[in-house]
Design brief:
mainly alpha, elongated, 4 helices, de novo design (two linked rop proteins), single chain
Length: about 120
């Protein structure tokens, strides 16, 4: 089986694991959030890896960097939703801190990847 370049990116592997974490975390949200915050969090976290995959197929470094930047901004969107979940008492402070730490790792790696794509 062929392995695509994005599948070898450490940040993509982290985003894959992070998506699983968010899906697990949101499984305990109130049912009335199924089509609200839960849906938004699942879509934004899924977009992180999807942007990296799509960007890996682009030809120019500038285009690749654009999709890496989109993955970065989508990660920040996920953080915003995570903060909302904390504010609404859907998650504990500990879950928030643990998840935020993962976001900080992913954003740092995305920043480094984008920088390398532009040099």
């Amino acid at each position: 089986m062929h392995t695509y370049s994005f599948e070898r990116l450490e940040v993509w592997l982290l985003s894959r694991s992070f998506r699983k974490d968010i899906y697990h975390l949101t499984s305990n949200f109130p049912k009335e959030e199924t089509f609200g915050l839960v849906s938004q969090m699942k879509r934004s976290v899924s977009s992180i890896g999807a942007c990296l995959a799509e960007g890996s197929g682009k030809i120019t470094p500038k285009d690749k960097a654009h999709y890496t930047n989109m993955a970065y901004t989508t990660t920040l969107e996920t953080l915003n939703h995570l903060i909302a979940a904390l504010d609404l008492d859907y998650i504990s402070e500990q879950d928030y801190l643990t998840t935020r730490s993962k976001i900080e790792t992913i954003t740092a790696k995305l920043s480094a990847l984008r920088k390398s794509q532009l040099t």
